[in-house]
Amino acid sequence: MTAARDPVSVKTLSFNQLLVASEWPLALDSYQRGFVWDKPKMTQLASDLAEYQKKSRQSLPYYMGTLLLHADDKKQLRFIIDGQQRITALSVLHRQLTGSLPKRQALSYSAHSSRFIRQAAKALAECAELPDTSVFDRLLFTVIVVDSADQAFTFFDTQNNRGVRLHATDLLKAFHLRAIDQAGGHERQRHGLEQYCAERWEDIQRHPAVLSPGQDFAPNLFNRFLWRARRWRGSQVPNGRHDSILEEFQTNTWPLGYDARSSLDTLPVYACRHNRMATTLTLKADGERELQGSRLLLSQNPANLPMALRQPIHQGIGFFLFADKYAALLQSLMNEPTAEVRLLAFRSLYTQLLRSNQEYLREIFLLASLLYVDQFDYEQLMAFALRLEFLLGAIRLDKQQVRQETAANFFRDGDLNLLDVIAQSHHPRQVLEYLYQQQRQCAEPYRDEQVVIGKGVQGRYKQAVLNYFHPEAGMGCERLADKPSWVESVIKRDWS
């Protein structure tokens, strides 16, 4: 009879001991981040270890921090919860020094991670000096092993990886993949859906930046767009913190069974621009999507998924399809190649007028534009963009410094919250009429401005406005008092 294992064990193990401490191999679950160590980080690791071995006093080991493992009895694997970047890097080093990977590891990676691993191997091959194989007996870890999935995810939620706190989006990915894994149904079906969702998530992470640059697009998507679109209502515009994002997209989501129409691969859908007839959506393991009620097959473009920004989010595939839809919609709005005239004009306005403006004003513009396109597609998009830009330009001319709280104040302090106006409107005209009324109230900064063209942030913005509206403003124009009429002229001439 096998003795019961402690639910949590803590040991100090070298890298070599770690691999033979159990009969079960080390593995990576699909919720894990991809491998992202670059050439400088790999080179630094090799240099540090080579320098360590040169020291005459090697009685002290080289400490590599804490590893968190989940021992899965069912799969007979030890899943790395925290520490996979270090273990992967050391495995690459092991192969460089010995010609083979360490035994008892079953680590598998996406194509994206594999590219980083090949770059890491190349970096080591080009190193002038490497440690020898004895170093693997001197690399010491504190190894925490838990035997419960609940404990594993509790640790995962709080554990720091070398002092870098996990993004809320990493935890959301883990939570919703776990929801798929723990659902009923055939194991092969669960695994197929889990793998599909994990791969789609990695695609989201690699999307080009919108607003904030970075290697991972997902935090930008959730922090600056999706959370605000859902939670900024009326005068309630709280700050988006780590815990509040987890609350919205984890705690407040609906589990399987909460709606009788939901199951492992099927979720309810709600009335919106992309759905007038269907009641449920089924995601198959190969990624094909089918609507029930209308019996229509959906296109493979996730931007066309029948979802709305403020709808309930169902755990598992519901969360991943929601994220996939709005990542794709934002990319189609700002980055993807297009021949759509209205979209090209929108991007031109953004490039010429918003790019010369402060980032906190740009995020207002893009957040509201995402809601608008989700609600009305590209119908009267330029009229919307011109009227909204007018309001943001008034803020720029009125304030020498635009602060971080500007976005929250804009939505909170208006006669109505613009996000609510868009979400609750049935026709673009309702939104445009609201913006027009706001526009009439914001004419004073334009009428009274005395900004020197090209001088400072306000002067550069003024120059951009004169350049953009050159046909309406005329040669030699140096004032913005007539901008209201310029806006109306462009809307009437080009977009009526």
TrEMBL record:
Signal peptide: none annotated. Transmembrane segments: none annotated. It holds the Pfam family GmrSD_N. Residues 28-176 form the GmrSD restriction endonucleases N-terminal domain. Residues 194-440 form the DUF7834 domain. This is DUF262 domain-containing protein. It comes from Pseudomonas bubulae.
